[in-house]
Amino acid sequence: MSAAREVLENLKAGKISLDEAELFFARRPFEELGNFAKLDSHRETRTGVPEVVFCAGKSDEHLLAIFKKLCEADGRAFGTRANARQFELLKNAFPHATFDPVSRIIKIENPQAATMPRTGKIAVCCAGTADIPVAEEAAQTAEYFGGNVERIFDVGVSGLHRLLAHLDKIQSANCIVAIAGMEGALASVLGGLTRNPVIAVPTSVGYGASFHGLAALLTMLNSCANGVSVVNIDNGFGAGFIAAQINRLARTTDPAAPENPATNPSRK
Fold first, then answer.
1. What is the pLDDT of residues 191-239, one digit of tens each?
2. How are beta strands 198-202 and 37-39 bridged, if at all?
């Protein structure tokens, strides 16, 4: 449930006064943290999900202040491209914080939200084992925002039978994330085999002529398969976020789908 809806529900139930509710909506749509950050405190109200932290490049002082403010407001925080040292810093302040060194994601979760069931189905496929860090960033992002993720790794086009062995799982997904370096052909193959959207993620995996992912990016942008969209090189977070949005839409437009506040924050 979004913070704004929670305030309205509490007002309706008589748990807070009209003045208290008015005070919430009178707040500015962002919060100043010194001269280094302006936290978008209304992002969840507008988009259904709170602001996410890109950890790389931030000083310890700034990172800690941002996480403290986010947790104070929402009881949770999600950070990408973090390192082990940053995790130790945050762990001291938030003992229940977790860190995955593969995806480089730091999570501080609200215990109640963490136990909510994930719904729908998102297939996260990657071409090779070297693509797994980006694939895990996509998968864990989609899971954090309520999606049920099926991981299908090391199914690149150099051994197409490996991919075809999982085709039933892939075709039953609401959307597919296709992650590949080298020439990036996996996205086109998946686009030609499925009817639901494919989100292509080029990775910087490959030899010299791959140009750190540029070759895969251009292949994916030039895909002749329908329904393929492309995010930036190594942007697993962006792909996972879009996949969660598509999955949420698929679930909320299906009249037979059970309600789940984790995947539909606009509903109770």
1. 999 999 999 999 999 999 999 999 999 999 999 999 999 999 999 999 9
2. unpaired
pLDDT per residue as tens digits for the range 241-266: 999 999 988 866 654 554 444 434 33
Asked if 233 contacts 213 with a C-beta cutoff of 8 angstroms, the reply is yes
Chain-centroid distance of CA 226 in Å reads 24
Comparing CA positions, the residue from 47, 246, 3 lying closest to residue 148 is: 246
Angle between helices 132-144 and 236-252 (to 10 degrees): 40
25 burial (CB, 10 Å; 0-12 / 13-18 / 19+) is exposed
Q: How confident is the model at residue 140 (pLDDT cuts 50, 70, 90)?
A: very high
Residue 168 CB contacts under 8 Å (≥ 6 apart), including other chains: none
Least confident range of 29-38, 67-76, 165-174, 201-210: 29-38
DSSP 112-144: HHHTSPPEEEEEEEESSGGGHHHHHHHHHHHHH
> Long-range contacts: 39-46, Cβ < 8 Å, 24+?
39/66, 39/69, 39/70, 39/73, 41/73, 44/2, 44/3, 44/74, 44/265, 45/2, 45/3, 45/4
Convert the pLDDT of each residue in 55-69 to its tens digit. Answer: 999 999 999 999 988
- Nearest alpha-carbon partner for 171 in 148, 145, 136, 197: 197
If you average pLDDT over residues 110-131, what whole number do you get? 85
CA distance 175 to 194: 9
Q: How far apart are CA 188 and CA 202, in angstroms?
A: 12
In whole angstroms, give the CA distance from residue 83 to residue 133.
13
Tokens 């984790």 appear where? Answer: 262
Tell me if 123 sits within 8 A of 168, measured CB to CB. no
